[in-house]
Each structure stands twice: as structure tokens, then as C-alpha cells.
């Protein structure tokens, strides 16, 4: 029976590339693993995999009685629904410690860096395992994506160091240029339904008993959403009601001007306003310099919801 490596629901590039890179590492260490994914692959991730000729992980949403490694999360809300019936062998993550628990000891690599693939790179170094060119390429792209080409406040020296070393393996002289290619792909939203856009990078969080859903779309020009706001709000309303969420939000992040337009539907909008020291006008607010959901959004909301 294979061991699976899987990231969070609605997987982003870090989750997909991390599942692939960690599965390869564990296999080289004598523990055969298979990468898996819980959801559809985003256009950006597809671009990354195709660029380096890497096959996408198989879709797998049930893990009862399986052995698994968890990548890029440690929250029940983002895990497979039957994860409590699985045996978790390890967690590799760069977020806050979530509410996953285990019955047996496990391997944990949880570090405050900008991307899970940075940690996986450190694991390769620790075990002295050579990284193939294609794996190095997708790891590099995942770090560029998660750190918003080093602009995110979550970016650390460890992230930039990892990209520099991975770029040498790939033979890439200008990682930033590749990063811009990726974000241009991300910015192509025409012909995509509002639900698909919101779900590209969407996570649910249990905040003191209230379910809060937060999506994020990172683009190079916010004008691509000018004619889509009404449709996005309508879909957010549907998603809020169908899952009984207390609040649902969508961050439209401009990586060039470095800020996010917040679209918000909430049973208590005053909590959201307090969290960001702002005023919602027509259920929107501009959040200057906000690029990171993990560091600049979730902690502030959790503090308000806990009070």
C-alpha cells in the first residue's frame, strides 16, 4: 500500500509542487511515496508543471486507513474530511500550527518561512539528496509564487537562498522574470467562472467557532476585475450560505502596486473593519501593502474573533 503526500484543499502551487517534491525525497530515502492532490490544478500550477515536464499528482480525496504526509497545512478545515481515520506520518508546513492531532509520533518540519518548498529544500540538504532539474524547477516556482516574487512580508533569507540554489540546478539566470510569467498567467481571468476564480486559492478557517472563508487572487493589474465585481459578490453570497460561513472574503491582490482590494460578506462586518482598522464601503475596502493572507489577514481576524 503506497504512502501518500498531500496538500490542502483547493491546492495552490506550493501544495501541488510540495507534494511532488516531498514524495520524491521520501522515495529516495527508501520510503516509497506518491504525490496526491485534493482539488483541481490552477492555471499557474499547470503552467509550472508543463514548463518543467512534471506530471500532475492524481486526484485523491479519501485517506481513511492510509498512511500520509501532510504538506502546506495543519488545519482540519483544509485536510481531507476523513483524515482522522488516516495515519499521519509527518507534516511539512510554513503556517501556524493548526488543530490536526495524531495517535502516534510523527515527523514535523514547521518553520516560519515563505513557502513549504523552502523547507523541503532544507530537507533535501539535510539528507544530502540531489534534486533533479525538473523537481528543482517546480520547487523554485512554488517559492516565487508564495513569496510574491520576494515581495511578501512572509519572505525570508531562507526563501531567497533556496531560490538562488535551485536556480543553479535549473540553469536559470533570472528567476524574477519567470515569476512575472507565472503571475501574468494568474492574471488571465477572462472566460473563468466566478466560482472557479474564488476557489483558485480559497481556505476555510475555524475562528473561535465561526467558519471564515478567505480566497485570494494575485494579479498584475486589478482592472481585470472591473466588470466582474458584481458576479464575484453574487457567488460569494452563494458560498457563504451553502456552507453556513459566518464570513467570506476575497482578496484581490495587486502585486505591482502592492495592496489588496477586500471583498467581504459577514454576519458581523464591524469585526472585519476592526481587524484591519478600515471601513467597508459597498462591502469593500482597500488594504495597502497587504499581500499575505497568512501573515497580514488571518492573524488579525483571529484576534478579533477570539475577543
UniProtKB/TrEMBL annotation:
Keyword Manganese attributed: yes
Cofactor: Mn(2+)
Pfam families recorded: DHH, DHHA2
Broad enzyme group: hydrolase
Catalytic activity: diphosphate + H2O = 2 phosphate + H(+)
Keyword terms, alphabetized: Hydrolase, Manganese, Metal-binding
Entry superkingdom: Bacteria
Molecular function GO terms recorded: inorganic diphosphate phosphatase activity
Record-listed E.C. numbers: 3.6.1.1
Domain DHHA2: 179-305
NCBIfam families per record: PRK05427.1
Protein name: inorganic diphosphatase
Originating species: Sulfurospirillum tamanense
